[in-house]
Write a structure and sequence with these properties.
The chain has about 475 residues and is an alpha/beta fold. The chain contains 14 helices and twelve strands. Helix 6 packs across helix 11 and helix 12 packs across helix 14. The protein is globular and about 70 Å long.
Length: about 475
């Protein structure tokens, strides 16, 4: 065991130290890795040292440097050193965070971290929270609670009676909502969102159109708003949306996977004005908080509905009771679960209020730096208002050229950016979400993007 621990510790240190300079795209592709890893399962097994050594070797060549300072795809943050170290402790402890009796440490860490998170994000003091794996389960959990709450208000117990024969639940979304909202609705038996409200050129839901749509509905209703569009970074107008929804008796859910973190920064808090008036919020920890996978948070302003949705009982359960620390499984849709709240606790305690704000601010400043530099290059267009940490780019005014630049940037390996289709046009997305990204990393990445753009514009030019 000591030799294995030493091997892993050395490999971890070596990998972390390489992130600042290593090629961002993986050196080995799927076919090569499959050939290397998909061996026949032996009868007798192999030594632990052999297995670990082999995985270490492939990890050097077949991982994308998503934890590094020049990865700008999919709004993925890195791992703060204190969070990475704590995550290794959590694996060593191997705690099941389902019930307080199974792990007092996990229970209290979630209790404290949840209170800190709600405070940082400006949410109501009585907010409940479930620690989940990411944005998708956070949206699913929140919308499950919303489903319970609006049906209960209509006199229907969905937990006891299911959805057959239940009043129809109207789900109202913006035209540019994230795909995880639709996936959550499918999982919960709500079907595809029935009302899609028009969005403006930045992807913000039009509040006036929402009010008109709600006026035409009758019965249980859930409105899904957004803090941080995944392409443009835009924020919905929360004061108007919340007011309109509540005027019509609707539940308001905010998908705040990365954008909700704006509330923790005095410089960007204005983007979230009115957000706290909603009924539920989903947030990702592995985005701007920079804790390792997996980490997400499902918040609601209605703890009784939250617990009624997620809670369960069995004769062998030993639940904490009112005076004991929280039982984690009472607030999520899974039972056996990793003690992931400990890592969030460590990150927040280490950073403090100013540290979280500074982390958010640096990511957003770096996004603005990249946008400003690229906007000055002929043939490069910044399509979005860079209000947060997202930059939306188009090259040569042409889909083909844009896609060629995107592919070239990914092959180049200096940085990694993702693509998307925005309002019918191919674009490149730069999502700046890593604690370790410096201005030098931004400048180096901008130079690589410009180099690839110029080469795609003049493919016959050897320079």
């Amino acid at each position: 065991m000591d030799d294995l621990t030493a091997t892993v510790a050395e490999a971890t240190e070596r990998y972390q130290e390489s992130l600042a300079e290593r090629r961002v795209e993986a050196e080995a592709g799927v076919a090569e890795v499959r050939h290397g890893l998909a061996s026949v399962l032996t009868d007798e097994g192999e030594s632990a040292a052999t297995v670990v050594d082999d995985l270490v070797a492939w990890g050097e060549r077949a991982t994308v440097a998503t934890a590094g300072p020049r990865y700008f795809g999919f709004v993925i943050g890195g791992a703060l050193p204190v969070a990475l170290a704590t995550d290794q402790l959590v694996s060593a402890w191997d705690q099941n965070a389902a019930m307080a009796v199974m792990s007092p440490l996990a229970a209290v860490a979630e209790e404290v971290a949840g209170r800190w998170l709600a405070d940082l994000l400006g949410l109501p003091e009585t907010t409940s929270v479930g620690f989940v794996t990411g944005g998708q389960p956070a949206n699913t959990t929140c919308l499950a609670v919303a489903r319970h709450h609006v049906l209960a208000a209509a006199g229907w117990d969905v937990e006891a009676r299911g959805l057959q024969g239940a009043p129809r639940v109207h789900v109202v979304v913006g035209a540019e909502r994230h795909a995880t909202i639709d996936a959550a609705c499918r999982v919960l038996g709500l079907g595809a969102p029935g009302v899609v409200v028009d969005a403006d050129e930045q992807g913000r839901m039009r509040a006036g159109a929402l009010d008109a749509a709600l006026a035409a509905l009758d019965g249980p209703t859930i409105v899904c708003a957004q803090a941080g569009n995944v392409v443009t970074g835009a924020f919905d107008p929360f004061p108007e949306i919340v007011a309109a929804a509540h005027r019509h008796g609707a539940w308001v859910h905010v998908d705040g996977a990365f954008g909700a973190w704006a509330a923790a920064s005095p410089a960007f808090r204005h983007l979230t004005v009115g957000m706290a008036g909603a009924d539920s919020w989903s947030v990702d920890g592995h985005k701007l908080l920079n804790v390792p996978y997996d980490s997400g948070y499902a918040f609601t302003a209605h703890p009784a509905s939250h617990q009624a949705t997620c809670g369960s009982s069995a004769s062998y359960y030993v639940m904490g009771g009112d005076e004991a620390p929280r039982d984690g499984m009472s607030w999520v849709l899974d039972a056996s679960r990793r003690a992931r709240g400990v890592v969030t606790y460590a990150a927040l305690r280490h950073l403090g209020r100013s540290g979280v704000a500074d982390l958010v601010d640096r990511c957003c400043r770096n996004a603005g730096r990249a946008a400003g530099a690229l906007a000055g290059e002929p043939g490069v267009e910044v399509l979005n208002d860079v209000v947060f940490n997202q930059v939306t780019l188009r090259f040569g005014g042409d889909d083909g050229h844009t896609r060629a630049v995107l592919a070239a940037v990914q092959r180049d390996g200096t940085c990694w950016a993702g693509g998307a289709t925005w309002q019918g046009r191919a674009v490149m997305r730069l999502s700046v979400a890593n604690w370790s990204t410096t201005e030098a990393d931004i400048d180096r990445s901008v130079a690589a993007v410009v180099r690839c753009h110029r080469a795609a514009a003049s493919p016959g030019d050897p320079s």
